[in-house]
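User: Could you go from structure to sequence for me? I need the amino acid at each position, not a summary. Structure tokens:
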């Protein structure tokens, strides 16, 4: 199966797979255009949010094989593959590049200053140097930021503090190869003393080190904060299993960890963000310039709690958390 077919298989989309009710555009689509897609992970462990992106494109009138050619590539969870894959799709004369995550954004931005780039799920693009401002990106890159701020660090820690009696120390599992993880680690360390908490940063960037990381967390802390990105998402089943084995209540900053049995997550709704990224791709394919499209931050955040996981940890989730929750797994 070709990479393009694999890409579309993920979304459940082949020409005509969705009914004509989805193929409604506000205006006729232009001539056949080329979309370059580079995903940091692989089809087997990509989140369902990708489906939302492809479905939204079809709703906007873009049908692969009719008016859209998709040059799709997957980095197979290897960050070092992003740059050459971006160069590869650029060589296919694409009209716009769509990618995911801060490493994907950086790889695309370094590869071209002319081809429009739409990114979803990147960290603060101003802080990382990808854009001059959110309101006016000022270059060829735009899209959706995760919207994380120091306030988010406080929310994650406060929820753990409320859920775990006697909490004094939180271990944060972070990939040192990901600049977004390092930025968030700094925010967490700055925020923790205000809540009378200590934070131990445990750096992990390969699967073989996860077991040792959770053993260290068990010795040093009473709870864990896991930074979600390509590496940890790839191994989310192992991550949540290790948290359960070591009886460590864990907070996650991405919702897919909940499908793998995570205890709590407070995060943007990725499906909403991916759908909105399709709107941006549509606008650019119809003539808009990325420099004129503000980089948007999420407006919908989800607090998810897994009561079955809590019971396995011998933890009673307070009613105050349940009342805030958008999603409760029983």
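Assistant: Here is the amino acid at each position, in order:
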């Amino acid at each position: 199966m070709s990479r393009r077919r694999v890409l579309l298989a993920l979304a459940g989309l082949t020409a005509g797979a969705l009914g004509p009710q989805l193929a409604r555009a506000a205006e006729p689509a232009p001539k056949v255009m080329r979309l370059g897609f580079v995903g940091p992970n692989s089809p087997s462990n990509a989140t369902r949010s990708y489906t939302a992106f492809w479905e939204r494109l079809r709703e906007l009138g873009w049908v692969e094989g009719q008016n859209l050619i998709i040059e799709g590539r997957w980095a197979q969870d290897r960050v070092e593959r992003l740059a050459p894959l971006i160069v590869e799709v650029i060589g296919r004369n694409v009209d716009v590049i769509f990618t995911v995550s801060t490493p994907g954004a950086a790889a695309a931005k370094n590869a071209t200053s002319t081809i429009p780039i739409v990114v979803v799920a990147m960290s603060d693009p101003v802080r990382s140097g990808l854009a001059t401002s959110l309101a006016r990106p000022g270059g060829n890159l735009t899209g959706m930021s995760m919207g994380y701020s120091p306030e988010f660090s406080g929310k994650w820690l406060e929820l753990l503090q409320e859920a775990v009696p006697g909490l004094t120390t939180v271990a944060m599992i972070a990939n040192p190869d990901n600049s977004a993880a390092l930025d968030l680690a700094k925010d967490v360390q700055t925020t923790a003393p205000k809540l009378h908490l200590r934070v131990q940063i445990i750096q992990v960037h390969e699967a073989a080190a996860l077991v040792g990381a959770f053993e260290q967390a068990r010795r040093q802390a009473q709870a864990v904060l896991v930074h979600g990105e390509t590496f940890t998402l790839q191994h989310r089943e192992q991550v949540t299993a290790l948290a359960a084995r070591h009886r460590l209540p864990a907070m996650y900053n991405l919702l897919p960890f909940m499908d793998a049995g995570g205890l709590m997550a407070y995060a943007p709704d990725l499906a909403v963000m991916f759908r909105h990224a399709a709107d941006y791709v549509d606008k650019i394919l119809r003539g808009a310039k990325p420099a004129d499209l503000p980089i948007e931050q999420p407006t919908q955040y989800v607090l998810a709690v897994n009561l079955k996981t809590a019971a396995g940890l011998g933890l009673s989730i307070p009613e105050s958390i349940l009342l805030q929750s958008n999603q409760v797994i029983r």
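One structural detail worth keeping in mind: The two ends are 39 Å apart (CA to CA).
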